[in-house]
Write a structure and sequence with these properties.
The complex is a heterodimer of chains A (about 350) and B (about 500).
Chain A: H1 2-25, E1 33-35, E2 38-40, H2 42-49, H3 51-65, H4 73-89, H5 94-119, H6 123-142, E3 147-148, H7 153-159, E4 161-162, E5 165-166, H8 167-185, H9 188-197, H10 199-204, H11 209-235, E6 237-238, H12 247-257, H13 269-288, H14 296-311, H15 314-338
Antiparallel strand pairs in A: 1-2, 3-6, 4-5
Chain B: E1 3-12, E2 15-25, E3 29-34, H1 41-48, E4 56-61, E5 64-66, H2 71-77, E6 79-82, H3 94-99, E7 105-106, E8 109-110, H4 112-123, H5 141-155, E9 159-163, H6 171-186, E10 190-194, H7 198-204, E11 207-212, E12 215-221, H8 227-235, E13 259-268, E14 272-280, E15 284-288, H9 295-303, E16 312-315, E17 318-319, H10 325-330, E18 333-336, H11 340-344, H12 351-363, H13 371-384, H14 401-413, E19 419-423, H15 431-446, E20 450-454, H16 458-464, E21 467-472, E22 475-481, H17 487-495, H18 501-507
Helix pairs in contact in B: 5-6, 8-17, 12-13, 12-14, 14-15
Classes of the chains: A mainly alpha (about 350), B alpha/beta (about 500).
């Protein structure tokens, strides 16, 4: 327990520092109101709006731990949203709509997983295929329109309230806790890390790398489907063109801020969802602080760069190297002249 | 003298890769450069082609001292190299590859027609009837090799270095390549031929130079040399030396022990010819042979890393499956591969996790080994194998080579396999750990486990194996057991030059 707390400490500190920074510009950031059976306030808003990226980050963490990457998650959100909206508008109930949407996400994951694990295509290329073609598939399902549906049990998944908190918060927290427990209470976490670090050695030790890889991409597809359901339920409509657009990049960023190496291996689901919350805090914070909207992306990029630099274990090394080479520079030139 | 090297030395941190090496190449000869792994062949070639800077010594080309600083400079001086892995661009056309870097231009643009014509001229005399406008990748490796040679000859034209050119060619392609090499020799080129196929050396080379442990051992005229002497030069063992290693613990009756496994007709085209092998309980079988003789490939076929074409394997209870590593592990096999870094250790995981990895994979992900049990296993094997690590949670990548090897061994011992394959178990580890691993092998077989040891150190095989199977040119050619296991006998068996059984087999 102590170990896992130390693992997420940098992310927790970063999040705390960011919240302090935002509070500086917007003093009401930390205030939470309770009215009409629901909590509200900027922090609650961050928790709710961060749900899609947090969900995507959970699946992305597993994929990246195997030394892969899944660019298609944003598109899978659009597909599963379109499937759900189609099911609802065709008169199906909320239950079947959710099952179909989740099924669509799993099928997408299976496709990615087979391309990577069986056909042997590089993950970035394999998932790029679905990333681009999937929007077309989603448009075919919605027939090019924005499919809308009426409020009902399905919409509750996006905008409902449970125990005073928005339902999406429960969905992402439970998913993250569930996946983390599945990884650490069984041997899956170890096996996933081992194929990410050295697939060949793991396979020789009897690890079924092919099945594990497919499973990991399916998990990513499942998480993306949940994110798609939330996004669709929230706006009560499926927008094949814009649902989840560019969110795969935020999810990758969340994993990276969470300290999981893109080279695979050791991972932490908790750190990744904290990474997602860090990104959402930046997004919300910039809006609340009242900067003109055209500054948003630039400020976001600057903050992200700063966070990554501070967290980088190489920073200390770079600093030493810089000082060292600066000091050595004057007497290095005569030696160079001699040779 | 076309090329002469005098007193060349090159060291890397911790090793002296080349120690005072002399080498001479005449115009119009094919000169083989031979030696086992780590002998210094590739270092010598890299010093010649400018990939490495030598520490001392001199290189003269046609009498003029040279010191190429890069491969392109060496090329301009006249030294061209063709590697086993063709270093051309398969997605460009043959003509583009041949003229790369000096394309004929017209109005500043590449003149395609002149380019193709130039390429055809370069290829004339090579007896190749190919369309230079097609992608290089569309042709076989042999043709790509010849294209690479044509390019190297056209660019350099004095010295041609062929580094393992035949490693991935079949017999007909080798013949085609050798015709080209003979032609070039007759045109007056000096050709350095690196290969570990001794038959080919005897077929095409005029002289040969043997390197061992970074030193030049000898230069001989091939026609005056027999295989046995050559192999002695390469392996560096006086035949008399063997007797003192005769190990007392050897069991001449290992074959009368109960049979454990029987492999029949295991093999794969272009990898290893089908072989039979019977494994008995508690015995140590050694696999001996030169580099490239099919030792590792045999092990990979038995462990299912490569699939066997046909053949079957049985034990007392019936068929045994080993079509892939997981099946082999299910059947009670274990395999510690040759390349520890890429195939053995999972570097970022801890010693504990590396030890339990195979056992955990075998139990399946739903049944994690409890942490207390993991710790117990790790501590047990750290103590038993004397693994030097500060604690079980240290990343295995931070351990020394010998200790990494012990962890990989521990991984398999924790599985308690009945048949354990160890490919070069002592490569690159220090003397103390070396003796310890040999002792461990004896301990394991004492409990009935059968062990197959692959090693290029014959002393090691003699010390540890009850019988030794000898491989040559991807065939299992002989077997020695009991008191016959001496390095003398192994060397003789490797050198034995019977009529090519491949042709015999074809005739039968």
């Amino acid at each position: 327990m102590k170990r896992s707390f130390r693992r997420v400490l940098p992310q927790l500190l970063t999040l705390a520092a960011l919240m302090a920074l935002v509070t500086l510009f917007f003093p009401q950031f930390l205030s939470i109101d309770y009215a009409g059976g629901r909590l509200s306030g900027p922090v609650i808003d961050v928790l709710k709006r961060g749900a899609p990226v947090a969900l995507l980050a959970v699946g992305m963490t597993l994929v990246i731990a195997t030394r892969g990457i899944d660019l298609s998650v944003g598109t899978i959100m659009a597909i599963s949203g379109a499937v759900a909206a189609w099911a609802l508008s065709s008169g199906w109930g909320a239950g079947p709509a959710v099952i179909l949407a989740v099924g669509a996400g799993l099928v997408c994951g299976l496709w990615n997983g087979c391309l990577v694990a069986i056909v042997g295509i590089q993950p970035i290329v394999a998932t790029l295929i679905l990333m681009t073609s999937g929007r077309g598939i989603a448009q075919l399902i919605t027939e090019g329109r924005i499919l809308t549906f009426d409020a009902g049990p399905f919409a509750w998944l996006g905008s409902g309230i449970l125990l005073g908190l928005p339902v999406p918060v429960f969905i992402w927290v439970l998913t993250a806790v569930g996946v983390a427990a599945l990884m650490r209470r069984t041997a899956l976490g170890l096996l996933v890390e081992s194929i990410g670090i050295n697939r060949s050695a793991s396979a020789l030790a009897g690890v079924n790398a092919t099945v594990l890889l497919i499973a990991v991409y399916m998990a990513s597809g499942l998480c993306a489907a949940l994110a798609g359901i939330i996004a669709t339920a929230d706006i009560r409509g499926a927008d094949a063109n814009n649902a989840g657009l560019w969110l795969e990049l935020d999810a990758i960023l969340a994993v990276v801020i969470g300290g999981t190496s893109l080279l695979g291996g050791r991972f932490s689901v908790a750190a990744s969802v904290l990474g997602a919350m860090i990104i959402q805090t930046i997004d919300t914070g910039i809006l609340l602080a009242g900067f003109p909207s055209e500054y948003n992306l630039v400020i976001k990029a600057g903050l992200v760069l700063m966070i990554l630099l501070i967290q980088s274990p190489n920073l200390v090394g770079h600093w030493h190297f810089l000082r060292h080479s600066l000091r050595r520079d004057p007497d290095a030139s005569p030696r160079g002249a001699k040779s | 003298m076309l090329l002469s090297i005098r007193n060349l030395s090159k060291s890397f941190p911790g090793t002296l890769a080349l120690d005072d090496v002399d080498f001479e190449l005449r115009a119009g000869e094919v000169h083989a450069l031979l030696g086992e792994n780590g002998a210094g062949k590739s270092t010598l070639i890299k010093c010649l082609t400018g990939a490495y800077r030598r520490d001392s010594g001199e290189i003269r080309l046609e009498g003029n001292p040279i010191s190429p600083a890069s491969t392109s400079e060496a090329q301009e001086l006249g030294i061209g190299t063709v590697y086993q892995e063709v270093n051309l661009l398969p997605n460009l056309t043959v003509a583009q590859n041949l003229t790369f870097g000096r394309e004929p231009r017209r109005f500043g643009l590449v003149d395609g027609r002149a380019q193709r014509k130039m390429a055809q001229e370069m290829l004339s005399g090579y007896n190749l009837d190919i369309d230079v406008g097609r992608d290089l990748g569309a042709y076989s490796v042999a043709i790509q090799q010849i294209v690479a040679i044509a390019r190297a000859v056209a660019l350099s034209g004095k010295v041609l270095i062929l580094d393992e050119p035949t490693a991935s060619l079949d017999a007909a392609e080798v013949r085609m390549l050798f015709d080209v090499v003979r032609d070039l020799r007759d045109q007056g080129l000096g050709i350095v031929f690196v290969s570990h196929f001794l038959d080919q050396v005897f077929e095409i080379c005029d002289r040969l130079t043997v390197l061992r442990n970074g030193r030049k051992i000898t230069t001989e005229v091939v026609a005056d040399l027999d295989r046995l002497t050559l192999i002695e030069h390469m392996l560096g063992r006086e035949l008399e030396e063997a007797t003192e290693h005769e190990a007392a613990q050897k069991d001449p009756h290992s074959r009368s022990r109960p049979e454990l496994l029987r492999f029949e007709g295991i093999g794969r085209d272009g990898v290893v010819e089908p072989f039979d092998m019977t494994v008995h309980k508690g015995e140590v079988i050694g696999l001996a042979g030169l580099l490239g003789s099919g030792r590792t490939e045999s092990a990979e076929l038995m462990f299912g890393v490569r699939a066997s074409q046909g053949g079957r394997t049985r034990d007392a209870d019936g068929p045994v499956a080993h079509g892939n590593p997981r099946e082999a592990i299910q059947s009670g096999f274990g395999f510690a591969p040759e390349d520890r870094k890429t195939d053995g250790i999972v570097a970022d995981l801890s010693v504990r996790e590396n030890i339990i990895l195979a056992l955990q994979a075998h139990r399946g992900w739903t049944r994690p080994i409890p942490r207390s049990e993991q710790n117990r296993l790790a501590d047990e094997y750290i103590a038993k194998l004397d693994i030097r690590t500060s604690d079980a949670e240290k990343a295995i990548g931070d351990l020394s080579g010998g200790n990494q090897q012990k962890v990989v061994l521990a991984r398999w011992l924790a599985m308690n396999p009945r048949f354990l394959i160890l490919d070069e178990p002592t490569r690159g580890i220090d003397v103390g750990a070396h003796a310890e691993i040999l002792r461990l092998i004896h301990e394991m077989t004492g409990q009935g486990m059968a062990v197959l040891v692959i090693s290029s150190e014959f002393d090691e095989l003699i010390a540890v194996a009850d019988r030794v199977i000898v491989l040559r040119d991807r065939r299992h050619t002989g077997e020695l057991s009991g008191s016959d296991v001496t390095s003398d006998a192994i060397v003789r068996e490797i050198a034995r030059d019977d009529a090519d059984p491949r042709t015999q087999r074809g005739a039968a």
